[in-house]
Amino acid sequence: MIISNSQIELINVTHAYKTAAGPLPVVNELSLQMAPASFTAVVGPSGCGKSTLTRLIAGLLIPDHGEVRLHGERVTSPRSTVGMAFQNPVLLEWRSILDNVLLPLEIVPNDLNRSAREERAGELLAMVGLSGFEDKKPSELSGGMRQRASLCRAIVHRPEVLILDEPFGALDAFTREDLWQIMHALRTKEKITTVLITHDLRESVFLADQIVVLSDRPATAQHIVVSPLGPDRVVDDLYTPEPTKLLAQLRHQIQIAQGREVA
Amino acid sequence: MDKNLLRQIGIPIMAILIFLLFWEWIVWFNNWPNYKMASPSDLVPAFWKFRWLFLEYGWQTLWRTIAGLMLAVFFGVLIGMIMGFSRTMREGLYPLLVGFNAIPKATVVPVIALMFVGQDNFNTVLMAFMISFFPIAVSVSLGLSTLEPEYRDILRSLGASQFTIFRKIALPKTLPEFFGALKVAVTLAFIGTNLVEIIQPHGKGLGFLFDSGKISADYPLMFAVLIALAFLGIMLYYIVVLLERTFAGWAERSP
Question: Among the four A167, A181, B165, B216, which has the fewest Cβ within 10 Å?
Fold first, then answer.
């Protein structure tokens, strides 16, 4: 077996959903590599199979062909070393914010006692600016605050892989930029290998180290670029020449993927 | 006493008093005899005259209703869970349940009375159960089957078992729907109990007292029984509200 230095590897992954009208191919011969502690953004036309990709990486779906590897090991079932956050923050309304964040630690085997768990959760909540909201119920928080709590929950158990499926998609523009900055701080501190699915090209350029443009369904890697931004980035950097050029290039690639332009 | 509690108790009591006054007035104004409609002032002597019977028969009606309700909760939740988790079972059971529920329960009373001759308590509890389990089963199955897939994914991606997902998410998330259905079921269960007590009189329950009033042409007694039933219904309803506040209070938004 070839030992690679990638944390996550997709090798010729092909997957189809079984529907009444026959198999519906969603992912086709997709190969990707993500280095440890790197941040990968995946963009592509609507309905191209991006969410299927997250479920494949999380082990919630097993591909028909090809394989997904974590640490060079083939993924065949869900594993507790993964954290997930979605566009819908799916907080448990009957639990306090603190207890919501603690949820993964109740399921994933760990040797932390109650106070150590609360300390860990409190630390994360402080990082995202939710100190003092530990005892509030999710319904008492704004959309942006709920999403921040959801991010804390996704990483509280120190997963090796973080999967974000459009977590900022439903937020207003200003809240979204705040959360980009918070997300960047979190990933820098926690050193998690992150995969972000997004429709927002600016978001992908600001947050990611590498950006993958998927083709229309069945999805395959159409174009992969590296973000020009360094580790100490701020949202203002997006308005400098290099990222602007990259954004134009990505936009062009999306239009190709949509079939509106030829390469 | 704080102002809110005063409001919560004061307003319903005021409403009841206004209703009773209006009732008294309309009977007096139309000069209705008590066989057409008894007035609240006719009811007081009726209650007093039969006070021990009201306690005895009221208790019989109450415990049999609660027993039927508890069976309805148990089997309703069970059937709801089966339908909520399995699409095949849901598609198979729905038409059966709807058909069963569509049968007027009054017609079932004699059938049951023949099936279990002389088993008065059993028959009555059974009817209270049969009439009240349907909304519980439907609400639980709906609550479980409409659980957003993301909730499942969050826990599944951590390696949680189906049982853990049920205990940590599906069960608590379904509680508000469950209590909503239970409130409906409470009043239905009283109807079930009284159907048996009135259609198949066996000397027990408020339904029997109602029937005796009819036979002896004691019209105020008949009205008094109706009021006693309403009182029991309100009591049980608010017990459910209390349970709801305790176990699913999170679903209530503070203004």
Answer: B216
Chain B nearest CA to A180, separation (Å): 22
CATH 2.60.40.420 fits A1-77+200-263, yes or no: no
Residues in chain B predicted with pLDDT less than 50, given as ranges, are 255
Give tens-digit pLDDT for B218-236. 999 999 999 999 999 999 9
Q: Does residue A88 belong to the interface with chain B, where contact is any CB pair within 8 Å? A: yes
Cα–Cα nearest to A87, from A26, A162, A171: A171
ipTM: 0.77
- B200 plus B227 within the same structural domain: yes
3-state secondary structure at position B24: helix
Domain count along chain B: 2
Q: Are B21 and B44 found together in one domain?
A: no
CA distance A107 to chain B (A): 6
Half-sphere exposure of A142 (CA within 13 A, CB side): 8
Nearest residue, CB atoms, A79 vs list B159, B173, B250: B159
Residues of B in contact with A92 (CB under 8 A): 168-169, 172-173
Single pTM value for the model: 0.78
Which residue in chain B is spatially nearest to A60 when comparing CA positions? B157
B120 is in which domain, residue-wise?
A: 39-251
Q: B2 with B21, same domain?
A: yes
Q: What is the side-by-side order of every strand in the sheet holding A221-226? A: A82-86, A161-165, A193-197, A39-43, A210-214, A221-226
Structure tokens at A106: 């109740």
Which residue of chain A is at minimal alpha-carbon distance from B172? A94
B25 lies in the same domain as B46: no
Q: How far is B84 from chain A (nearest CA, A)?
A: 19
Contact A227, A246 (CB under 8 A): yes
* B72 burial via Cβ count (<10 Å: 0-12, 13-18, 19+): buried
Estimate to the nearest angstrom the gap between the alpha carbon of B142 and the chain centroid.
Answer: 20
The ranges assigned to domains in chain A are: 1-77+200-263
- The number of C-beta contacts closer than 8 angstroms across A and B is 62
Question: B245 to chain A: which residues are within 8 Å by CB?
Answer: none
Query: Does one domain contain both B22 and B138?
Result: no
**Domain check: are B1 and B119 in the same one?**
no
Distance CA A240, CA A23 (A): 45
Cβ–Cβ gap B159/A103 under 8 Å: no
The token pair at A222 is 């159409």
pLDDT tens column, A200-238: 999 999 999 999 998 888 888 888 888 888 888 888 888
